[in-house]
Amino acid sequence: MGTSAAMVQLKVVLAGGGGAISDADCATIFACFDPPIRMGPHEDMGSTREWQAEHVPPCSNMHVKGRDGPRIDGCTNYDTDKAMTWIVEDGQSLDTEHQRLTKAMREFSQANEASKKNATLKEWMDQYEPEAKKVLEDRKVTDDAKELDKSALSAAAAKCIRQKVDASYQGKVAQSTPLRNGQAQGLPPKKPMRGGSGSAGGF
User: Which of 12, 39, 108, 198 has CA atoms 20 to 30 A from the CA of 48?
Assistant: First the structure.
């Protein structure tokens, strides 16, 4: 990544806050991290012992049981293998990126189940975005990016991740769709009284 024009542009983007971030700026933001943030369908991302693809939100939320097989109402076009993911530090050992994100989502799932609530896809994304920011605040950045505000950079990266995940759900799973509390072994949400939230087209 260049040190001059790119850094100036990023400072403007980070100072702006609030609004949507362009794909080009998201690519530059992702490249600031070391390793850089990578996103794509789960089946294309590959995995190692150290790094694995993270589903957003947990893919078990979309299924009647587990992370595959029959899907809940409103998620019939969801495909775990084709779902948008991003590569995180794995191992599920204490304080790895994947463990921290899994723990946060499990706690949200358990809280929902305890209150007999099935949060919508949007509510899950609202919960996930700040957790991704926290994780990225602890990921290293490139030398060029060290002059940037790390908190603002991490917030922008988390927003970019959300934008790309949200875009991947368009026409497949509505933001208003109630999800199962998969990590709390919850039951599928009750079917809506009328209509449905699924739509045509595969994930």
Answer: 108
Task: Supply 83's token pair.
Answer: 């779902």
Q: How far is 90 from 25, CA to CA, in rounded Å? A: 26
Sheet-wide strand order for 51-55: 39-41, 84-89, 51-55
Most distant pair of Cα atoms in the chain: their distance: 56
The secondary structure element, H or E, covering residue 9 is helix 5-16
For 98-113, how does the pLDDT look when each residue is reduced to its tens digit (9 = 90+)?
A: 999 999 999 999 999 9
From CA 32, how far away is CA 111, in angstroms rounded? 35
Whether the per-residue pLDDT at 199 is higher than 60: the answer is: no
**Residue pair 4/147 in contact by the 8 Å Cβ criterion:** no
- Pick from 74, 42, 68: nearest CA to 55: 42
Is 78 in contact with 198 (CB distance < 8 Å)?
Answer: no
| 27 SS3 class | helix
Contact residues for 162 (Cβ-Cβ < 8 A; gap 6+)? 56, 125, 128, 129, 132
Q: Percent of the chain beyond pLDDT 90?
A: 73
Q: How far is CA 67 from the centre of its chain?
A: 16
Cβ contact 55:121 at 8 Å: no
pLDDT digits (tens, 9 = 90+) for 35-87: 999 999 999 998 777 888 999 999 999 999 988 889 999 999 999 999 999 99
The model's pTM is: 0.89
